[in-house]
Write a structure and sequence with these properties.
- This protein is mostly beta strands.
- It is 10% helix and 42% strand.
- The strands form four sheets. Strands 3, 5, 6, 9, 10, 11, 12 and 13 form an eight-stranded antiparallel β-sheet that branches. It has a two-stranded antiparallel ribbon with strand order 1-2.
- The radius of gyration is 20 Å and the shape is elongated.
């Protein structure tokens, strides 16, 4: 195969969208189905006012069928936006992809986090997270559902709670 043929094949493969799901041989004589949720088919939604203060956009939401319990999404917070107090029955992992954010466990200290940081929110512990007043923040969120539930929403974080001082050593 010439380099030109190889490049043309790669360009054609990139130009043609793959189907949403495809069946392929696993190498063991079995067939399996791989699903691809295309970005174009998923519309971002605004975080419900009931659970968010300020503007947050949720995209890429997924919920896997059993036996998997994993669910997730991409959440983008505009400056000053934050979640309400909430907990997760099996915990939650946040991978920060952009910006600067704040997080706090109920009755705990407030901490600042940055792009590239990974946060673990422990099971059944009330917490909140969001952007700082001067920076937007985006994170991937992954959690497991227990009996179909992955989050328990509580009351909104007050302005006083949001603007409370950072913990010593709680930022850069």
């Amino acid at each position: 195969m010439t380099t030109t043929t190889l490049i043309a094949g790669v360009l054609l493969a990139q130009a043609a969208p793959a189907p949403a799901s495809t069946t392929f041989e696993t190498g063991t004589g079995e067939e399996a189905t791989m699903e691809i949720d295309r970005k174009e088919a998923r519309e971002p939604v605004e975080g419900p006012e009931e659970y968010f203060t300020g503007t947050a956009h949720i995209s890429g939401q997924f919920d896997r069928a059993g036996p998997s319990r994993v669910t997730g999404a991409i959440v983008s917070f505009e400056p000053g936006a934050r979640t309400a107090w909430h907990s997760h029955p099996l915990g939650q992992t946040l991978y920060v992809t952009q910006g600067i954010g704040w997080t706090q466990l109920r009755n705990g200290e407030k901490y600042e986090f940055y792009e590239g940081d990974i946060l673990w929110c422990p099971p059944d512990k009330d917490h909140w997270h969001g952007a700082t007043p001067d920076s937007s923040m985006t994170h991937y969120v992954v959690q497991e559902a227990l009996d179909g539930e992955n989050v328990v929403w509580k009351e909104k974080v007050t302005d006083e709670e949001y603007m409370s001082p950072l913990a010593k050593g709680g930022g850069n």
